[in-house]
Amino acid sequence: MPVTSITTDTDALSMTLVADFPVAPERVWEAFADPRQLERFWGPPGYPATFGRFELTPGGVVHYWMTSPEGQKFYGRWDVTAVDAPRSFTVTDAFADEHGTADPGMPAGQMTVSVDATPTGSRLTVLSTSPTLEALQQVIDMGQVEGMRQSMGQLDTVLADLREYALGKGTQTEILDDTHVRITRAFEAPRSLLWRAHTEPALMRQWLLGPDGWEMTVCELDPVAGTPYRYAWAPVGDTAGQPFGFEGETVVVEPQRRLVSTERMSGTDFPGTVNDLSFDEVDGVTLLTLYITYTDVAQRDMILATGMTDGMEASYARLEQELVTA
Length: 326
Hints:
- The protein folds into two domains: 3-160, Alpha-D-Glucose-1,6-Bisphosphate, Chain A, domain 4 (2-Layer Sandwich); 163-324, 2-Layer Sandwich (Alpha-D-Glucose-1,6-Bisphosphate, Chain A, domain 4).
- It contains ten helices and 16 strands.
- It has helices spanning 25-33, 35-38, 133-141, 144-152, 155-159, 162-165, 191-199, 201-207, 297-304, 308-324, and strands at 3-9, 14-21, 49-54, 61-67, 73-84, 88-96, 109-118, 121-129, 172-177, 180-187, 214-220, 228-235, 244-254, 258-265, 273-282, 285-293.
- The strands form two sheets. The protein has an eight-stranded antiparallel β-sheet with strand order 1-2-8-7-6-5-4-3. An eight-stranded antiparallel β-sheet has the order 9-10-16-15-14-13-12-11.
- Strand 1 (3-9) and strand 2 (14-21) form a beta hairpin.
- Helix 7 packs across helix 8 (201-207).
- The longest helix has 17 residues, at 308-324.
- The model has no long low-confidence stretch (mean pLDDT 93).
- Residues 23-159, 189-323 form the Activator of Hsp90 ATPase homologue 1/2-like C-terminal domain.
- This is SRPBCC family protein.
- InterPro entries: ASHA1/2-like_C, START-like_dom_sf.
């Protein structure tokens, strides 16, 4: 975890985040100055940002929104007051509407992002200052401390060379907390192909099979928000096991970027999960990130104990062989 500290100071009406990275300051600056890179970490897991207007120059305006797993959008606006590239920038940070107009009913603060060289790389400091103690407490109560920690905790993945960081390492599962798990898998392929492989039933039937000896008997999917889907599998020949399936609803669709759906096992009363799948491509390598939300720790551990990661890797290895290298 790159974040080393987050402190609040009620006298200075401020919150300060500090994070260290083993890369040059110019590389960290690039991640903030490029909206496509910024989208990969600005916003905690499950609430990724999309930047529309992006003018990181004095007097410029930045308009963005975070989309929840339920499809709800939360808008923000930066009015850029100072830029000292590649070292720092300062903005007035405000809540906004879908048009980028600041919300006068919500407090606006000041944020300064600075990057400094260290003996081992660089140090990122994000200083947020509120106009009043009440405004500071309001953003704290809204979860800004933990949100910033989670957001900046994703920056190391953005800064890493994906070929070194993830390619060839298979499916990786990381337990984030009692109800959240993050699963990653890298492919040397464009995300356009991987998006098709996850949204076109004819392609999904070629690889989404789990271990050898199973077939996908049902694949009903229309990648449109608000539509239901259903998958089912059955053993082939002498393969042991009982047919099973999953069903749910597609909630968020951002073509070639993000696909969020609910999921529950067909024919059971087991609680469901929310699956948030994202696609990030850098220099011909695409990183799939699946962020799963469970109802509680017991459900999380029960599902992980089924060998889910191994089953996913078997399918992803088949995807790599059947489609990516075909």
